[in-house]
Amino acid sequence: MLIAAPHVHHATSEHGTAVLDVRRGQWLMLDADASRIWHAVTVRGGTSGLADEIAVPTGQDPQTVGEQIAAFVGELVATGVLVDTDRPLRQRRCWR
Question: Are 18 and 32 in contact (CB under 8 A)?
């Protein structure tokens, strides 16, 4: 399951979502579409069915939209904004 990282704060309005990564001191501003993906992950617990919800009313290909959603979520995980709770955390090494 994906969740917002503990060092991330976020707020959503009708214009999108603002995400603050306090560890890196960086803001991420999500437009309405990206905000919809963020909401699906952080509130619904995943993006299952989201591609169809977006693609069908707009006449897009659900598979293509699903691939784009997966790529975006992958970027959020890679940057550490989202955390996959099903994957073990990397252990940090302490050098003495």
Answer: no
Contacting residues for 66 by C-beta, under 8 A, at least 6 apart: 50, 51, 55
> What averages of pLDDT result for each successive group of 10 residues across the chain (96 residues)?
94 94 95 94 92 94 97 95 78 53
The 3 state secondary structure assigned to 34-94 is HHHHHHHHHHHCCCCCHHHHHHHHHCCCHHHHHHHHHHHHHHHHHCCCEEECCCCCCCCCC
Which has the closest alpha carbon to 48: 26, 64, 69? 69
pTM tops 0.85, yes or no? no
State how far the Cα of 61 lies from the Cα of 55, in Å rounded to an integer: 6
* Res 59: pLDDT: 95
